[in-house]
Amino acid sequence: MSRSDTAPATRPAAGAARPAGGLAGRAAGRLAGGAVRVFLVVAALFWLLPTLGLLISSLVAPADLNEGGWWQVFGAPSRLTAENYERLLANETITGSLLNTFAIAVPATLLVLALGAFAGYAFAWLEFPGRDWLFLVVVGLLVVPVQVALIPVSELFGTIGLFETTAGVVLFHTAFGLPFAVFLLRNFFAEIPRELLEAARLDGAGELRLFTRVVLPLGGPAIASLGIFQFLWVWNDMLVALVFADSAHPPITVALQQQVRQFGNNIDVLAPGAFLSMVVPLVVFFAFQRQFVTGVMAGAVK
Amino acid sequence: MTASAAHGPSAEARRRRLVAAAFLLPALVLLGALVVQPIGYSLYRSFFDRSGDVFVGGDNYREIFADDGIRTALKNTAVWVVLAPATATALGLIFAVLTERVRWGTAFKLLVFMPMAISMLAAGIIFRLVYDHDPGRGVANAVWVGVHDTFAQSSAFPKARPGRDSPLTDAGGGAFVTREPVRAGVPVLLPLVGVAPETLPGGTRTAGTAAAVPGEVTGTVWQDFTRGGGGATNVVDPSEQGFAGMRIEAVRDGRVVDTATARADGTFTLSAKADGALLRLPAVNFREAYGGVQWLGPALVTPAVIGAYVWMWAGFAMVLIGAGLAAVPRELLEAARVDGANEWQVFRRITVPLLAPLLAVVLVTLVINVMKIFDLVFVIAPGAVQDDANVLALQLYRTSFGTDADPGLGSAIAVLLLVLVIPVMLVNIRRLRKEGAR
User: Which ranges of A59-130 would DSSP assign to H, the alpha helix?
Assistant: First the structure.
């Protein structure tokens, strides 16, 4: 309301004020604009160069790496080669670890989506005693650091035979992804108009049918955001895998971490390896930017 | 909603509860077993020793504050909490405001937000390379050394020194000085040894003997060493090289009275003012080539890793603040501008106060995030300085799973970590309750 009232009033005034500022004012404005541009260009370089450096290093043969910094490649583009990547892709430890990462991230994402959606629906639309109280507990669990569970869960997994198994890692990630999933989906599902659900109920739909036919389709955007967020989270995890993953079949983060100790002598492995681990997250990021941003923003308010 | 429950559980209500339980159970079982139970177990375990058999009371907690290593971790975590969230939020705010003024703002945002998508391991490897000490490899030191060498010339003779029976002696601080005062008209010999021939500066020529010039102090500074032997000590032999560019000062009573720079053949000329003075070769001639900053040394490793963190998370702050900024009514800013406020005043007096609640949320989120920081420190800090870069979460990992694991102490650290985030947990719950009441 206020927007439509005041906007027309200010516009002519602003137009009138500008010439009054005079040439000096306009020059100062242009100078400030130039300073802003310079500052942002410098900042952009700060954000670009680190990644670019590793990318170029990953494309230089190990022998040439000692010839000078990666930035000197701009003077000698012939040094660029895909050799490191070819060698890396022939390395079964690395390619295997990439598959292990998939084997962890995909089920951990699907499980969180499924269990989170079930619980979110229950918290949003089913009636049972202690519902609000239980939901507050789940919200409280949002900030529990994974570190708190490392020792207890490794002992628990030890007794039930899940320690150093992919299933164990998947369950751990699912459990720690659930509070956020339940929180996000419950809030989203709660926005669904009651009439829609009532109408379906009157048509004789059971809760399961209601859930799959009405709630899930309407919850699509939230589920997509959550899925992307959780997938990237699990894909990028190192700590949980370091503790719980099968050391003979580690995900890519752990496989590369083991190489970091000799940093300096193995940039030809580490640089392309890091990029290989980044390909999937970056593809997901660029393909689903909007959903990812939504997920991150929802997560921030947790 | 409680109408049926009030009349006692009818069959319908019981059925509904069963359905609710079926929907909830899988999630609650996992949460209970892997999140809630561990909290209780950690608390319990933290009162027992390494083996888990002996009750030790609060000893593990006392150990946290007594152990030097853990104290460093606590201190560093505090440094992280103070520096990292504030820096990332401030940069995010600046970026969010400024990108609104350029046409390529969206591309810039994409670039700065991109690191959010990659793992801390990948970011760690990226920054390990950035911070590499070798200026021929790490871009941080390459730039630093480049800037440094532009303003402070590096020396050409880092290893040069007087040989046996030299007329020169150590003057302290890396400089050398003649034992005897020099006289005008008597050529001075300043022999040095120790410079590898291939490291001599370009344009160096065979050393020449300075001519005696009345009223002037002349001399030669050169490499008093003949390859393959045969040269005489303190004599300019035919195949010996001059130290081109060497700086020479004439010092009398501690004051520099004249200076000269050696020519390509190592000869130099000073005015009559140098008569009776001592000749000094200042330390600037012998300084080691500048190697840059030890980014990942014990002193700077924490700020360096924080830099990498800010690189990763400033985009997060920027995107959240950008969304808040889009909701700020434009008329408000425009009205202030019409009233004569400049851009800084608009930013300071209107934008920031309007965004304050959002800035607080971003800051708190980052603080929680930073308390749990592990991967970046683990990957970027080289093994030798991990003790200096230590943070709570890293200490917890090392205590709990190293070769010398102590699950009791590890659990105590875990409980401490949990206690640190509990205030945020309570704020979340209260906010939700308020929303529910609305």
Answer: 62-65, 83-90, 92-125
Query: Chain A contact for B347, CB < 8 A?
Result: no
Kindly list the residues from chain A whose CB atom is less than 8 angstroms away from the CB atom of residue B102: 36-37, 40
**What's the total number of domains in chain B?**
2
Cβ distance of A297 and B323 shorter than 8 Å: yes
DSSP B241: B
* Residue B114 Cα to chain centre, angstroms: 22
Query: Are residues B253 and B306 located together in one domain of the fold?
Result: no
| Structural domain of B126 | 59-143+296-437
pLDDT digit string (tens) for chain A, length 302 residues: 333 333 333 333 333 344 445 666 666 667 777 888 899 999 999 999 999 988 888 888 877 776 677 777 777 777 788 888 888 888 888 888 999 999 999 999 999 999 999 999 999 888 888 888 899 888 888 888 999 999 999 989 888 888 888 889 999 999 999 999 999 899 888 888 888 888 888 887 777 888 888 888 888 888 988 898 899 999 999 999 999 988 888 999 998 888 887 776 788 888 889 998 999 999 988 888 887 887 777 765 44
Please check whether residues B304 and B433 belong to one and the same domain. yes
Q: A56, A81, A106 — which closes off a domain?
A: A81
Query: Do B432 and B316 belong together in one domain?
Result: yes
A133 and A187 housed in the same domain: yes
Q: How many CA atoms lie within 13 A of B12 on its CB side?
A: 8
- Give a yes or no: residue B84 inside a domain: yes
In angstroms, the CA A263 to CA A60 distance is 16
Asked if B428 and A139 count as a contact pair (C-beta separation under 8 A), the reply is yes
Cα B318 from Cα B108, distance rounded (Å): 11
Question: Residue A154: CB partners within 8 Å, gap ≥ 6?
Answer: A163, A243, A244
B145 neighbors B292 (Cβ within 8 angstroms): yes
Number of structural domains chain A divides into? 2
Same-domain pairing of A33 and A120: no
Looking at A81, A101, A134, the residue that finishes a domain is: A81
- Does one domain contain both B300 and B244? no
User: Is B44 inside any structural domain?
Assistant: no
Q: Which long-range contacts (CB under 8 A, 24 or more apart) does B322-325 make?
A: B322/B96, B322/B99, B322/B109, B323/A297, B324/B355, B324/B358, B325/B96, B325/B97, B325/B100, B325/B351, B325/B355
Q: How far is CA B253 from CA A22, B177, B249, B336, in A?
A: 63, 13, 13, 67
A91 beta partners: none
- Which residue from B43, B38, B287, B320 is spatially nearest to B173, judged by alpha carbons? B287
pTM tops 0.90:
no
Q: Does A148 touch chain B (CB under 8 A)?
A: yes
Residues 24 through 83 of chain A touching chain B, CB cutoff 8 Å: 32-33, 36-37, 39-40, 43-44, 46-51, 53-54, 57, 65, 68-71
Q: Does A128 touch chain B (CB under 8 A)?
A: yes
Q: Which of A48, A138, A147 sits opposite B372 (nearest CB)?
A: A147
DSSP assignments along B257-296, one per residue: EEEEE--TTSEEEE-GGGTTPEEEE-GGGTPPPP----TT
- Nearest Cβ partner of A277 from B20, B119, B429? B119
Q: How far is B351 from chain A (nearest CA, A)?
A: 17
Instruction: For this complex, say whether ipTM is above 0.95.
Output: no
B427 and chain A: CB distance < 8 Å anywhere?
no
- Chain-chain contact of B126 with A232 (C-beta, under 8 angstroms): no
Q: Is the CB of B44 inside 8 Å of chain A's CB atoms?
A: no
Structural domain of A222: 85-300
